[in-house]
């Protein structure tokens, strides 16, 4: 028997399309849906951006330095001593009941009145995105999402071969008339729109918040077209003035799936989030969760639950907000001071991100290696669109670096942009 390396890819196969069939002998075995799975540009950046000399404005890592680690470690030791045999055991796919009750109290801050039975605990809200897409999307189904949108959501949609149609936004968030047009266009083309995915508060990556006046209109449009709304709200409690906005879910419990998370308000590494589903959807969601993970980690859920019942978690969120507000102030004033003419950016009132538009002729993706050489990194805008737009945009995350580092990063970035504009 002779072996002559991996077989030639069949015409039209993934191996052939990928154009690198020599690298992976399994290419012809992958399911068709894996064709949409590509490494996110942001993940690819992480390695270079995490070198200490580089000011990274690229990743959206929460700044955890304000967490009370001493008392947390006491709490965790007590959890093991008092409740270890439960904490270290399997639990239900639905999630720990006490935590689901506490989650309902948190959501009440945004006007949501929910029953704990309708909450399903997930491994971060990213798992919620995956489950919701798995439940609702067949290959080719259309999903509407703001343009730009959260890169992890685009990844989930691609993994299930949904087709993303972006809907324009402005400084007040998603534009209702653009939503109407997108729906009309899809209907003309005979496409099935399954849901609108939206991040109403302190948007990732755009940094804007959906105006309260637009909320009812958006819900009405979706209801009239039979389109479900997926409301992704990990930043809702991180408004710098302490303001919260009424959740979409609060006004239309039967047509909104709400995704929440403890990643930005407590600890991202615990990977605890949740889905609040319309009652009718909950059963299927629990089944989807069960087949994905059997159950979310009991230990981590009990850590979160204890933290909520023993710590001043609202005070802790206030401290986080204050830290992020200082960083937002630092980055905005540095942008004002250093950026060359022709650049514009959003002015976030909460959350982690500023969305910058650069002058025509500058390509943020092509510029990135030169920025990294100048020791600053950002996320280029193209990663936040499913359709190749975004080359004149970039996302700057101000959540992690100190205000001094942010100012230095923006100074370096402005220098790179200036030389780019001279080219
Ligand atoms: N949605 C949005 C808009 C996000 O920004 C993030 C995290 N960056 C997530 C969902 C996922 O968060 P997690 O899985 O940590 O809850």
UniProtKB/TrEMBL annotation:
Molecular-function GO term, any one: DNA binding
Cofactor: pyridoxal 5'-phosphate
Pfam families registered for this protein in UniProt: Aminotran_1_2
Bias type Pro residues, positions: 1-10
Residue segments, region Disordered: 1-23
Transmembrane parts of this sequence: none
Protein keywords: Aminotransferase, Antibiotic biosynthesis, DNA-binding, Pyridoxal phosphate, Transferase
CDD domains listed in its UniProt record: AAT_like
Keyword set includes DNA-binding: yes
Gene3D superfamilies: Aspartate Aminotransferase, domain 1, Type I PLP-dependent aspartate aminotransferase-like (Major domain)
Keyword RNA-binding assigned: no
InterPro entries: Aminotransferase_I/II_large, Class-I_PLP-dep_aminotransf, PyrdxlP-dep_Trfase, PyrdxlP-dep_Trfase_major, PyrdxlP-dep_Trfase_small
Domain called Aminotransferase class I/classII large: residue spans: 70-413
GO BP term, example: antibiotic biosynthetic process
Protein family: Belongs to the class-I pyridoxal-phosphate-dependent aminotransferase family.
PANTHER family, per the entry: AMINOTRANSFERASE, KYNURENINE_ALPHA-AMINOADIPATE AMINOTRANSFERASE, MITOCHONDRIAL
Subunit note: Homodimer.
Protein name: DNA-binding transcriptional MocR family regulator
């Amino acid at each position: 028997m002779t072996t002559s390396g991996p077989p030639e890819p069949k015409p039209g196969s993934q191996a052939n399309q990928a154009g690198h069939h020599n690298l992976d002998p399994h290419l012809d075995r992958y399911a068709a849906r894996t064709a949409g799975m590509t490494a996110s540009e942001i993940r690819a950046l992480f390695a270079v951006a995490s070198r200490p000399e580089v000011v990274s404005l690229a990743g959206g890592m929460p700044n955890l330095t304000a967490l009370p680690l001493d008392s947390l470690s006491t709490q965790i030791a007590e959890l093991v001593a008092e409740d270890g045999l439960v904490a270290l055991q399997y639990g239900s796919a639905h999630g720990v009941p006490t935590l689901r009750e506490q989650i309902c109290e948190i959501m009440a801050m945004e006007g949501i009145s929910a029953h704990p039975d309708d909450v399903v605990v997930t491994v971060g809200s990213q798992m919620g995105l995956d489950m919701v897409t798995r439940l609702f999307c067949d290959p080719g189904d259309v999903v509407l999402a703001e343009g730009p949108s959260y890169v992890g959501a685009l990844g989930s949609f691609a993994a299930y071969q949904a087709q993303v149609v972006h809907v324009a936004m402005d400084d007040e968030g998603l534009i209702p008339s653009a939503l109407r047009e997108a729906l009309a266009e899809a209907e003309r083309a005979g496409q099935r729109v399954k849901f609108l995915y939206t991040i109403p508060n302190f948007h990732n990556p755009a940094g804007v918040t959906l105006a309260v006046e637009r909320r009812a209109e958006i819900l009405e449009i979706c209801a009239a077209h039979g389109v479900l709304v997926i409301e992704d709200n990990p930043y809702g409690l991180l408004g710098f003035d302490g303001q919260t906005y009424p959740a979409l879910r609060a006004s239309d419990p039967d047509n909104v799936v709400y995704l929440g998370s403890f990643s930005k308000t407590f600890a991202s590494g615990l990977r605890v989030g949740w889905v609040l589903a319309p009652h009718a959807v909950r059963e299927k969601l629990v089944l989807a969760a069960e087949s994905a993970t059997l159950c979310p980690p009991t230990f981590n859920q009990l850590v979160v639950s204890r933290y909520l019942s023993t710590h001043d978690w609202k005070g802790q969120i206030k401290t986080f907000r204050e830290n992020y507000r200082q960083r937002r102030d630092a980055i905005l004033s540095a942008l004002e001071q250093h950026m060359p003419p022709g650049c514009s950016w959003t002015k976030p009132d909460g959350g982690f991100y500023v969305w910058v538009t650069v002058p025509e002729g500058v390509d943020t993706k092509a510029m990135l290696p030169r920025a990294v050489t100048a020791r600053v990194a950002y996320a280029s805008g193209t990663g936040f669109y499913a359709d190749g737009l975004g080359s004149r945009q970039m996302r700057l995350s101000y959540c992690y670096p100190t205000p001094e580092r942010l100012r230095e990063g923006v100074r370096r970035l402005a220098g790179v942009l200036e030389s780019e504009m001279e080219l």
